[in-house]
Amino acid sequence: MSDNRALQRAHVLANHILRSPPLPSNLSLTREVCLQYSPPELNESYGFEVKEMRKLLDGHNVEDRDWLYGLMMQSNLFNRKERGGKIFVSPDYNQTMEQQREITMKRIWHLLERGVFQGWLTEAGPDAELKKLALLEVCGIFDHSLSIKLGVHFFLWGNAVKFFGTRRHHEKWLKNTEDYLVKGCFAMTELGHGSNVRGIETVTTYDSRTGEFVINTPCESAQKYWIGGAAKHATHTIVFSQLIINGTNQGVHAFIAQIRDQDGNICPNIRIADCGHKIGLNGVDNGRIWFDNLRIPRENLLNSVADVSSDGQYVSAIKDPDQRFGAFMAPLTSGRVTIASSAIYSAKVGLSIAIRYSLSRRAFSVTANGPEVLLLDYPSHQRRLLPLLAKTYAMSFAANYLKMIYVKRTPETNKAIHVVSSGLKAVLTWHNMRTLQECREAVGGQGVKTENLVGQLKGEFDVQTTFEGDNNVLMQQVSKALFAEYVSCKKRNKPFKGLGLEHMNSSRPVLPAELTSSTLRCSQFQKNVFCLRERDLLERFTSEVAQLQGRGESRELSFLVNHQLAEDLGKAFTEKAILQTILDAEAKLAAGSVKDVLGLVRSMYALICLEEDPSFLRYGYLSRDNIGDVRREVSKLCGELRPHALALVTSFGIPDAFLAPIAFNWVEANAWSSKEKKDLETQDAMVVDSPPWMPWTLKLIGYSRIHEMSEHRALRRAHVLANHILRSPPLPSNLALTRESCLQYSPPELNESYGFDVKEMRKLLDGHSLEDRDWLYGLMMQSDLFNRKERGGKVFVSPDYNQTTEQQRDISVKRIRYLLEKGVFQGWLTETAPEAELKKFAMYEVCGIYDYSFSAKLGVHFLLWGNAVKFFGTKRHHDKWLKDTEDYVVKGCFAMTELGHGSNVKGIETVTTYDPRTEEFVINTPCESAQKYWIGEAANNATHAIVISQLDINGTNQGVHVFIAQIRDQDGNICPNIRIADCGHKIGLNGVDNGRIWYCTQQLYVMLSYLIPRVCPSLKTAHYDYRFDNLRIPRENLLNSVADVSSDGQYLSAIKNPDQRFGAFLAPLTSGRVTIASSAVYSAKLGLAVAIRYSLSRRAFSAVKDGPEVLLLDYPSHQRRLLPLLAKTYAMSFAANHLKRIYVKRTPETNKAIHVLSSGLKAALTWHNMRTLQECREACGGQGLKTENRVGHLKGDYDVQTTFEGDNNVLMQQVSKALFAEYVSCKKRNKPFKGLGLEHMNSSRPVLPSELTSSTLRCSQFQKNVFRLRERDLLERFTSEVALFQGRGESREFSFLLNHQLSEDLSKAFTEKAILQTVLDAEAKLPAGSIKDVLGLVRSMYALICLEEDPSFLRYGYLSRDNVGDVRREVSKLCGELRPHTLALVTSFGIPDAFLAPIAFNWVEANAWSSV
């Protein structure tokens, strides 16, 4: 070879060995520097003192926090590992539930031995309590399971003894609890009663002959449920029970009961079962407890509020039962305090990782051939993260304020603490979940890896929205408390004092009509507008409730009917309280940089609240112009906060080790060299002996003998035991507590009727291949490979998620083999007719309903690898590969995504050259960021890969092309010149073996790593990188339907334009977006089927005093949570079917329209799925956390859909750009619009009626008109704004970026209008009848909820405030009209019962002892 080629070759080889930057090359493809990590600290500066800011944010005990951080970092028990040259500590989530529980207890013993818990119960005073709260927060930053275990033991069990008990209890229990000689749990929640503590069914009576209380679980719904620590470790429990004295129910009281002896054996008269595997917190051993006449000493009643004398007399200074119940509940506020605070620290972790990553990760460029841009320099990315950062700051001050008033509480402040803690617990935990979801998507696929924390934290902290009080219930409590305070003050004609309502003693604030930048940033204006909202909503709410009460309705029912106003009011109160805390903190600061930056943060918090809450527009506090001013100001603040982003997250004070590898050198953390480094754990460090047990001084309380009892008590005892054995209803009793029957399951089918033919509706929804679907459902139900299990008398099939990654992968492969043998995949690649493609889609959807890992593996093999061969290849490839692929002789994967390039396919760095001497292509991975990443099937199973690579021919980069490369031989050995590493454990899809691929020369690497330092010592001082090269493949392995290379190295393509050629390569990949969109809808169907069926049999609270408990779905608020999502899912089903049909009948002429529509639908439908699953999880309460109930786990499995096969935000930008191009083209050529659904713009602009009646709102023509008006106006606005910037000399791409919000509004308008049209088309084909009538209701619900939820309709003046009020009321009416059809609507999804979840049916029996 020439000297130049020899030199180039030598440097390439040296780069592999010595890891230096590449030698500059004259090849046009090669950049001066490959994509690399640049620490943010090199480019970002701190504009204020971060240590001072941290003191403000942590608020207290900074030194104690740092001490505990240090303890954890020193021990290998906390899973120390090295990534990218840094040490990290975080849990290993690739463990079974049992392993996670074991390591959590070892960590507790480790911290106990080092004095971490000293004084947690035996020291009193605000400072001691604040220290305890600080240390608990640090534990939660490491692992929420660890903090929950400690919280149950110290804050629930320990505080119950402390606050419910008296001196005799303190002396007996507190010190032993602090030393972990007693391990406590807290048995309040029951299967049938979570938030409704008053309704619990456990019964305790008193036996005056023996001086003992007797605790019973009278029925299955009374079993204690979700009891942290109960399943394995706890020795004692606090039992909340109804107390019956002499036949009178005295209400809920608290008792101490021993449940295990000192050897860990369960005590007599107690049964304990495990709650099972969960979507998070698997280090906590949640259990279920039944009591069978458990006898405990009289002294075990915690008697600070009430007592029972030895002769059985009930004694209490508080005579009113409601006040007595309140006294019992008041000390439990600590739970809400710790939850609110820990939620904010979780959001801090997520934001620290996402923002640091965005300060070093680059994507795309804003000019042709320009450098790629840092993520956080994109205005759209700033808009995603910086408002959440400001909210997290504001909420940090609020959490600190809550802690301060809690530790200094008095009887007079308890009410205010209850209200503030209720609001903050709800708002802060919802904020955390939203923040973590946004951060997960903002870091792309990296957020799916559990070692990067962000995605995993969602599963760990999801429970917070429903435990210690369901968030929706807590927000109702806030509004009820404000209502009571308002009515009381008005009735007594006294000024407001307390609950922050003092501002209502002054006149109503008057806001300026025009809002300048200085006005919007003025703290007084911000206070005024927040106070105005709270004041007005409180007056509206009180007025509406009073009106209904005046018509004879109960107060409770009046609250329920006005639940939306109640929600608005609860939010207004809480956000105003948060604002006040940051104002108070800011006021204490001296002038300087910290105060200046905090002022920006405060203004961002205030203004993003104004922008996001429709109340400000809906009720007229601000005008449309005002909201426009707010929106622009938020964007300006994003730009001003951008330089401070690094300093702001550094001020959180979380050590680097507690963040994630991608927060730092994400390239090196994913490098091959990092794979080879072992974790720093040692065998000795993993074994921590429990401290020796001190002599037990506690008397065992369990009794095994049967005491003498009255005939009545003997009879009751017999029936309690019979209930456990024979599962019969409990014996009716004359005890005042006992109802005619305990809470029981009543099948929805007994009370609900089908108002239409569900089979016919299913045909519409599935759209095609029904018999094929049912055949495949049947195949899965027949095989034990699909984890058949019985719950509540029914058989279910769903994956077992209490398995390691390796186990889940193994069973996924076995399931594929099983279906292969049954002929399921026959014709998936070799049959080409539209109906064959639709059949394949149907089978794929059914597989996804069972397990998304399963369908994802099939998708990689058939839809990515197989379709790439089919559509990119020609006959020679089809003949060679397709049949073997269909028969699984060849197992394919699809290597497009790289570490450094996900959505930006044009920018990938893998390089392929051609060697005419051997007629081979040579594939290289020139740098670490070019490694193929997230390649499904690559880690274990694939034998071949589609490689997407830049093609360099004779020094000219011809752009991205597609090649076939063998990566394993038939024995599963990795082929020479290739390296493969595992992507590791993920938040979902662990049945898919995602891998990373480097194309390299392994033999040369080994040889040269030895020879070069000896033969050519001078190279040791050069700065070479560790690179890979020279995987050789035959020329025929270029998939050549678009372009080819002749044997002598000539590049051949009929498409000369590189952009058009790139488009031709990507067009066939649309199938990925089609299947993702469709599978997302089926996931939402599954979630809704479970949640709605559960809500049709689960009851909670009562609407009238002492009345029966109400079905969840009979609450208007619960209907509002689920039924609009149900309507959207229906509409999106028709849209997904439409997309599949136009895809399978595609032509070159329709490819553009399919690309645009699939981009919009993929984004809209996957976002909808994630929102739906989150709402369904919360709507099912704690049951949604159990993986066997599916809803919660689906979130982890399907989360990846929002960022793979095109990041959703990028896809939505593509939609708006395509509409822009179409608009400009038609206007420029003066031609009518044709295609992309813009034909309506050839007609005059729709005119909407000023008054909207019910019939108008439900009219399909009105709905079409208002959706078209929005799309038309936004397209014209977007085009105009882009043209304005271009006229000022900005590039088109940069002009798009600056108008990203209009772009987002436009793409949403386009997609929602397209979805509506598909429902209208389906409806138009139906004959008159019940199906058409119900579908009309569903279509109207879809249309109107879109009008209600999108602020664009108000912001841009398409609808007036009165119109939007009409829409809101109509949606509520539609909820009531759809309520009788809900069971039929979810049954029409056609998902067999076996693929749903136990709680969708007999949730009582499924959790019964007999099912254990």
From TrEMBL:
Q: Where is the Acyl-CoA oxidase C-terminal domain?
A: 532-659, 1266-1396
What the entry lists under SUPFAM superfamilies is as follows: Acyl-CoA dehydrogenase C-terminal domain-like (SSF47203), Acyl-CoA dehydrogenase NM domain-like (SSF56645)
Q: Which cofactors does this protein require?
A: FAD
Name its GO BP terms in alphabetical order. fatty acid beta-oxidation using acyl-CoA oxidase; lipid homeostasis
Molecular function terms from GO: acyl-CoA oxidase activity; FAD binding; fatty acid binding
**All copies of domain Acyl-CoA oxidase/dehydrogenase middle, residue ranges:** 185-293, 893-997
Output the InterPro entries linked to this UniProt entry: ACOX_C_alpha1, Acyl-CoA_Oxase/DH_mid-dom, Acyl-CoA_Oxase/DH_mid-dom_sf, Acyl-CoA_oxidase, Acyl-CoA_oxidase_C, AcylCo_DH-like_C, AcylCoA_DH/oxidase_NM_dom_sf
Keyword Nucleotide-binding annotated:
no
Please give one Pfam family short name.
Answer: Acyl-CoA_dh_M
Record EC number: 1.3.3.6
What's the catalysed reaction? Answer: a 2,3-saturated acyl-CoA + O2 = a (2E)-enoyl-CoA + H2O2
Query: Where does the protein principally reside?
Result: other
GO CC aspect terms: peroxisome
Q: What UniProt keywords apply to this chain's record, in alphabetical order?
A: FAD, Fatty acid metabolism, Flavoprotein, Lipid metabolism, Oxidoreductase, Peroxisome
| Every Acyl-CoA oxidase C-alpha1 domain range | 332-482, 1069-1219
Sequence similarity: Belongs to the acyl-CoA oxidase family.
Task: Report the protein name in the record.
Answer: acyl-CoA oxidase
Please name the source species: Thlaspi arvense
